[in-house]
Amino acid sequence: MTQPLPKYDVFQAIADPTRRQLLQLLTDQEMPVTVISGHFPMSRTAVSKHLRVLAEAGLVKERKVGRETRYRLDPEPLRELKRWLAYYERYWENKLSMLKHYVESDESDETTS
């Protein structure tokens, strides 16, 4: 039996700045939604919706403690993002090298003039 595909992928989940802030907030500790929502200028319901997207992408894990649900970061899915970015990093490095060469050659031209 195959598992259903997640509703959101990592890229969709981190596209929103609020969700990126949520991930950062949950980096070092597990928190209930009541505490999390105190860090944001929005309703608890709105925060819960953002947490749901993160959970569906696998970026946060939920744990029931009594009547309370606590959330914590699960960084594992971010490895997919890291691999994707690593592929394109070579293009950035190439462009930076070209820029460095251009700037340094322009500076040497000015000093010899």
Automatic annotation (TrEMBL):
Keywords: DNA-binding, Transcription, Transcription regulation
Domain HTH arsR-type residue range list: 1-93
Family matches, as Pfam families: HTH_5 (PF01022)
Keyword Oxidoreductase in record: no
Domain of life: Bacteria
Keyword Transcription regulation: yes
GO terms of molecular function: DNA binding; DNA-binding transcription factor activity
Entry protein name: Transcriptional regulator
Origin species: Paenibacillus abyssi
